[in-house]
UniProtKB/TrEMBL annotation, chain A:
<dbReference type="GO" id="GO:0046872">
    <property type="term" value="F:metal ion binding"/>
</dbReference>
<feature type="binding site">
    <location>
        <position position="80"/>
    </location>
    <ligand>
        <name>[2Fe-2S] cluster</name>
    </ligand>
</feature>
<dbReference type="Pfam" id="PF01257">
    <property type="entry name" value="2Fe-2S_thioredx"/>
</dbReference>
<keyword id="KW-0001">2Fe-2S</keyword>
<keyword id="KW-0408">Iron</keyword>
<feature type="binding site">
    <location>
        <position position="121"/>
    </location>
    <ligand>
        <name>[2Fe-2S] cluster</name>
    </ligand>
</feature>
<keyword id="KW-0411">Iron-sulfur</keyword>
<dbReference type="InterPro" id="IPR036249">
    <property type="entry name" value="Thioredoxin-like_sf"/>
</dbReference>
<dbReference type="InterPro" id="IPR041921">
    <property type="entry name" value="NuoE_N"/>
</dbReference>
Automatic annotation (TrEMBL), chain B:
<dbReference type="GO" id="GO:0008137">
    <property type="term" value="F:NADH dehydrogenase (ubiquinone) activity"/>
</dbReference>
<keyword id="KW-1278">Translocase</keyword>
<keyword id="KW-0004">4Fe-4S</keyword>
<dbReference type="GO" id="GO:0051287">
    <property type="term" value="F:NAD binding"/>
</dbReference>
<dbReference type="InterPro" id="IPR019554">
    <property type="entry name" value="Soluble_ligand-bd"/>
</dbReference>
<comment type="similarity">
    <text>Belongs to the complex I 51 kDa subunit family.</text>
</comment>
<keyword id="KW-0408">Iron</keyword>
<dbReference type="Pfam" id="PF01512">
    <property type="entry name" value="Complex1_51K"/>
</dbReference>
<dbReference type="GO" id="GO:0010181">
    <property type="term" value="F:FMN binding"/>
</dbReference>
Length: 154, 428
């Protein structure tokens, strides 16, 4: 069940577009803000609000990289795996993160603290390799800096 | 040398707030346009300036605008959209403009919207640009407060609403018709053309989509004229260009330089190759452009010259391939990206790109046969222009076909030595 706050926010998004369906991505973003991922139940609730079928909502939800359809950790690490970061050694960062957290891309660590995801070019290729943790950007990252960097996120 | 787009960008201080921006001459072009110029005047000026779209394809901005219905019978609302999705690997130029001087983009959008008589403007921003999102939202609010946006701008009859939209991550959102679908709340798959967005775009209404850098040129063209804009350039394509270099160079970065600056000069701005590294090749304008090599260093970086050298200017951000990086691994990384970001709409791309990616991986691991090289060659034709629904797959084939041309010895060494001859990469 969606909370009142979620429903109010989704109704606001609906009011901004010419027809209900057009608000589906914004509605899914509202769910993400509140719960960090979108469950099957949420897909159904959104479908009902927007007068769509759950399959239609899911076809949009499953298309986009950042609409998570599985639970994620309290923090998400987005490691850039695109070309400039490849040249500048993102694979070493990946190896270090795998060792520290005992997870591979797409996985969440055992205490639910971090999910590790690959991400396309973060648009700071002149400071490669780069990663984001939640909304924080880190540039020119060296494997030796990771431990201290992660400490900030509990 | 004039650098109109980046003159007021400095990361040693916060970006200019509205009043500071006005003090540097900001919004003068909007005042001038709304008081003295007709929409057609601006369209004419932009056409005469020879400005070409900076999103990658290099299409004349004036010509594009010229196809929008004007006059009393034109359907409304009309839309203007700033494409700030910047996800082309190796590209980091729009970020500089968005974070460095958000009011410049907003002013460019107001002028462009006035020129096509749009009613609603969107900035389609990729999610990762958090700092830009905050700055743009603040700046839009400031512009509303000052009467540059909203109803009856500067007391005249024309009104414009502007919204910031942040995406949820997909390279295809940058393709202009897929962007329209994403804005409508759909999957970001491309639309058939015709009808072109100018006639039937967002919600079926006339729409212009322009790149951030393109739009940032407009205030300067309106202020200083088409001839001045042409004089900034060293070639027949007017203006400056934001060029970038990344990879193993001494000072990777982004610089505004005259259109037509050569590759050699640009690499010089980047401080040359890092100690101990040699230039093996480069992609001149992002991941979907053909490799160029040392023999092309004196090529001017403009659309016509780079095309004549066998590649494309694309986004103008160079990615350097050095001699310690395996070209097969490099191209595999690119194809992994394209295969992952294929929207799945058409079969050759959806099925072909993962095949290409797997084939490259088996070459990289030393497990491939000469037939695999032929298979790659075949794909460069099968996924080339005209065989797929949009430009993603043909773009993906550009670095592959040119790698097969310039770095064939490297491919062959993987086959004969049955391993990657470059020691330093860890393979997933
Ligand atoms: C797969 C793909 C991705 C694209 N991504 C972008 C992008 O992120 N930003 C952009 O401005 N143009 C992008 N383009 C080009 C746009 O389709 C369009 O040509 C451009 O936004 C038009 O603006 P311009 O005329 O000012 O260059 C992309 C094209 C393709 C095929
Ligand atoms: S070429 Fe690829 S990205 Fe473009 S429409 Fe076809 S499947 Fe989608
Ligand atoms: S390739 Fe990693 S930031 Fe661009």
């Amino acid at each position: 069940m969606l909370s009142d706050a979620e429903i109010t926010a989704i109704n606001h998004e609906i009011s901004l577009v010419p027809h209900k369906k057009a608000a589906v991505i914004e509605a899914l973003k509202v769910i993400l803000q509140h719960r960090h991922w979108v469950s099957d139940e949420c897909v159904e609730s959104v479908a009902e609000l927007l007068e769509m079928s759950p399959a239609e909502v899911d076809s949009v939800a499953s298309f986009y990289n950042l609409i998570f359809r599985k639970p994620v950790g309290r923090h998400v690490i987005h490691l850039c795996d695109s070309i400039s970061c490849y040249v500048m050694g993102y694979e070493e960062l990946y190896q270090a993160l795998q060792q520290m957290l005992d997870i591979r891309f797409g996985e969440t660590d055992t205490d639910g603290r971090f999910t590790l995801l690959p991400n396309c070019c973060l648009g700071c290729c002149d400071h490669a390799p780069a990663l984001m943790i939640d909304e924080d950007l880190y540039q020119d990252v060296k494997p030796g800096q990771l431990k201290r960097m992660l400490k900030k996120y509990s | 040398m004039e650098r109109p787009l980046t003159k007021h960008i400095s990361f040693r201080r916060p970006s200019l707030a509205l009043e500071e921006y006005e003090r540097t001459g900001g919004y003068a072009a909007v005042r001038k346009a709304l008081k003295q110029l007709t929409p057609e005047d601006i369209q004419q000026q932009v056409l005469a300036s020879t400005l070409k779209g900076r999103g990658g394809a290099g299409f004349s901005t004036g010509t594009k605008w010229g196809l929008i219905p004007m006059g009393a019978d034109a359907p409304h609302p009309k839309y203007l959209i700033a494409n700030a999705d910047e996800m082309e690997p190796g590209t980091f130029k729009d970020r500089l403009l968005l974070e460095g001087n958000p009011h410049q983009l907003i002013e460019g959008m107001i002028l462009s919207a006035y020129a096509i008589q749009a009613d609603i403007a969107y900035i389609f921003l990729r999610w990762a640009y958090r700092k830009a999102a905050v700055l743009l939202q603040q700046s839009i609010e400031e512009a509303y407060g000052a009467g540059y946006l909203g109803k009856h701008i500067l007391g005249g009859s024309w009104s414009l609403e502007m919204h910031l939209h942040t995406g949820v991550g997909r390279y295809m959102c940058g393709e202009e018709t897929a962007l329209l679908n994403a804005l409508e709340g759909k999957r970001a798959t491309p639309r058939a053309k015709p009808p072109f967005p100018q006639l039937s775009g967002l919600f079926g209404k006339p729409t212009i989509v322009n790149n951030v850098e393109t739009l940032c040129c407009i205030p300067h063209i309106v202020n200083n004229g088409a001839d001045w804009f042409k004089s900034l350039s060293r070639c027949a394509e007017g203006g400056t260009k934001l060029y970038g270099v990344s990879g193993k160079v001494n000072h990777p970065g982004c610089w505004e330089l005259p259109m037509g600056t050569t590759i050699r000069e640009l690499l010089h701005h980047a401080g040359g190759m890092k100690n101990g590294h040699r230039l093996k090749g480069l992609l001149p304008g992002g991941a979907s452009t053909d490799f160029l090599t040392e023999q092309h260093l004196d090529t001017p970086l403009d659309y016509t010259s780079v095309a004549a050298a066998g590649s494309r200017l694309g986004t103008g951000t160079i990615i350097v391939l050095d001699d310690a990086t395996c070209p097969v691994g490099f191209v595999h990384n690119l194809q992994h990206f394209f295969a992952q970001e294929s929207c799945g709409w058409c079969t050759p791309c959806r099925e072909g790109l993962p095949w290409v990616e797997k084939t490259l991986l088996s070459i990289e691991r030393g497990e491939a046969t000469p037939e695999d090289i032929e298979l790659l060659r075949m794909h460069t034709h099968m996924l080339g222009p005209g065989h797929t629904f949009c430009a993603l797959a043909p773009g993906a084939m550009e670095p592959l076909q040119s790698a097969l041309h310039y770095f064939m010895d490297d491919f062959e060494r993987h086959l004969t030595e049955k391993k990657c001859p470059y020691a330093n990469h860890l393979h997933r």
